[in-house]
Amino acid sequence: MASAAAIVARNKAAALGLGANKTPRKYLNQDFEELRARCLASGTLFEDPTFPAAQSSLGTKDLGPESEKVKGLVWKRPKEINLTPQFINEGAHRADVRQGSLGDCWFLCSIAALTMNEECLCRVVPMDQSFDKDYAGIFHFKFWQYGEWVDVVVDDRLPSKKGKLVFVKSTAENEFWSALLEKAYAKLNGTYEALSGGISLEALEDFTGGIGELYYFDKAPQNLFQIIQSSLKRGSMVTCSTKSETGTGEIVVSNNMVKNHGYTVTGAEEVSYRSHNIQLMRVRNPWGYKEWNGPWSDKAPEWDEVDPKMKVNLKVDCEDGETWMPLSSFMVEFYRVAICHLNLDHICCNENLTWCLTEFTGSWTAGSTAGGGKNHPTFWTNPQFWITLEEPDVDHPGDTKTPLCTVIVSLMQKEQRRKKVGGESFSISFSIYKAPKETPPNVPLQQKFFKANKDIDSTDKFRTERGASKRFQLPAGNYVIVPSTTNPSQEADFCLRVFTEKRAKTLELGNMVFAEVYEPSLNANPDSETQNGTESSHEEKGEYTAEDLRVVLNEMLSKRDDIKSEGFSLKTCKEMINCLDEDNTGTLSNEEFNILWKKLENYMKIFLEVDTNVSGNIDSHEMRNALHKAGFGLNNQIQDVIVRRYVSGNLTINFEDFIACMIQLETLFKMFNILDMDKEGKVSLSLSEWILVGLI
Question: What is the pLDDT of residues 370-383, one digit of tens each?
């Protein structure tokens, strides 16, 4: 119950603007200003209890207590490492970032890319921090996390050996902003070890809230150079990756390239060389050294035949990890490039476009919405998102008969990096279907639709990385996006983002909540025979307590040979009374009892219809069909709660729990309708009233 309340509270806070970059959510409820003021008042330096200077913050495997990497490690504050520490020394530059012993080059090349956009850098790294004014051993940084910004607080105790930083460091020995940024990101992901190995696009999105695209060179478009060049000019952040066919770990080869390593792309230019235009790429190694030594490198002879002005503007002649190389070599040495778009104007010619963004958050829950991939029969139970494209792009790529709309879809698995260390992360994907004309919006597509129809497009494959994104060109019309994990019952939270050039109508299917439950006629004969010939007659009493109900209902239920049940518990019988006892007597009258029995007969009928294999239980995925037959329209969040509360470990629900669920839902809807006196779909309760209602 508390977790459900937390979800509701967070949604309400987001609606009020909490989570914007200017009003970030306080990570772990730590308020930077309040904590700093408390330390300054007491004359103490901040020590972070949520990410302490201890082994628990380092890791359990590569940085575990027995690892050689942590032996001799000492946590020190910058003032214990350098006599004149600076947060930022003469501005933050890409050369400030040098990799330490942690295998997080993917993260560091993203930091280097971040320094090339001052506006984005200042969002992530608040510049009003120092080791002089109001210094209290506490710093903070802001990161985008699945639709909202969070403010992460850290103390400034950093891992060191022999007086030197162990992990990321700056070229200037007295500069510490990058090391503290790394610590904040490690805290956000659980440990320093959680940062070992990854894809740069993840950090780029966390620095900007932008949308990422991956281009693999074996499927690269012919205009990839132009895409990269245009992206850099528009402020997008670009990184690239190498890999080795012979082994794991970072390996330096003869041309000074590092295999299994991440680089930052810092430039893309064309130069005139021997009457030809040569396309050049400038890349930076986050180590700060080990540069490409082939054609067009710092000391290569090709520069001697370039226009002197161009040479002055472009040539880099120092061992700083950054150098140029021809596009042909770039395509050989690297195998993919990641682009994080801060705006999406480069996709079309019109430079004054304002792209529209729709964000959804959801969950894959075992037995409810974790349906697995398209090859599984439960695929249809995955969350579904409707999108209506009405207007084509300004400069649409299609012909006049079929103008096209550009759509970029991005799917992210939340907490994926933290799960890789302490839990389990999954491969994810999404598929897009053309919605049938006869389907009303807000009604999820059913199993028979997916059996008869193929998707029109999808991600190339299931991705083990945190995110999967792809650009589509689609004709105007209605579509349904279905995100999924590889297999059913793989539980995770996700964030789905949809970008369109023109405003599109989007909604989560099945997100409306309503009830049109069966209400028996009071004039019906209560002693009529049931569907299978068992009479429902009983000796009527003036009133029925919960114990009376238990005896009578179980006796009547025992006559039903089509229902496999050991009978109702006292708790379930009390819930039945709560549902129908409007005069607050704690009992049911004869009339109320007869209404209850007819309701139970209706629910029995539904249960038997859904229990297709006559097992006496229903599959949890079929619960949504049963809810629909019973007249309940519930969103995925509510259905997930139902699964957690009523479904057993083998993802089935027995007869009594099914009845208890139906009765509980009826009670909740009745209570709300009574309290919603203005019929506005909202109720307001005092604490006392809330507890009174909640205890029913």
Answer: 999 999 999 999 99
Domain 211-341 has CATH 3.30.1490.190: no
| Contact criterion met (CB below 8 Å) for 82 and 174 | yes
Residue 271: strand pairing partners: 278
User: Which residue of the set 105, 120, 579, 661 is catalytic?
Assistant: 105
Q: Of 109, 140, 240, 261, which one is the catalytic site residue?
A: 261
Q: What is the rounded CA–CA span in Å between residue 341 and residue 162?
A: 41
Specify the pTM. 0.79
The domain segmentation of the chain, as residue ranges, is: 21-198, 211-341, 351-510, 546-694
- Spatial contact of 639 and 646, defined as CB atoms under 8 Å apart: no
**Residue 307: strand, helix, or coil:** coil
Domain 546-694 has CATH 3.40.718.10: no
With residue 507 as reference, give the H or E element that holds it.
strand 505-508
Q: What's the half-sphere exposure (Cβ side, CA atoms, 13 Å) at 150?
A: 18
CB atoms inside a 10 Å sphere around CB 614 = 9
Q: Is 80 helix (H, G, I), strand (E, B) or coil?
A: helix
CA distance 285 to 620: 51
Burial class (CB in 10 A: 0-12, 13-18, 19+), 351: exposed
Judge whether 105 counts as a catalytic residue: yes
Contacts of 106 (CB under 8 A, 6+ apart): 197, 198, 199, 200, 202, 203, 239, 241, 262
Architecture of the domain whose range is 351-510:
Sandwich (2.60)
What is the C-alpha separation between 181 and 292, in angstroms, rounded? Answer: 28
Half-sphere exposure of 301 (CA within 13 A, CB side): 1
| Catalytic residue from among 189, 285, 578, 617 | 285
Q: Is 285 a catalytic residue?
A: yes
3-state secondary structure of 541: coil
Q: What is the pLDDT of residues 283-341, one digit of tens each?
A: 998 888 889 999 999 889 999 998 888 888 887 677 788 999 999 999 999 999 999 88
- 261 annotated active-site: yes
User: For residue 328, what are the contacts with CB-CB under 8 A and spacing of at least 6?
Assistant: none
Q: Say how many C-beta atoms besides its own lie within 10 A of residue 356's C-beta.
A: 13
Sheet holding 74-76, edge to edge: 74-76, 158-161, 164-165
Tell me the C-alpha to C-alpha distance, in Å, between residue 508 and each of 212, 355, 473: 23, 20, 21
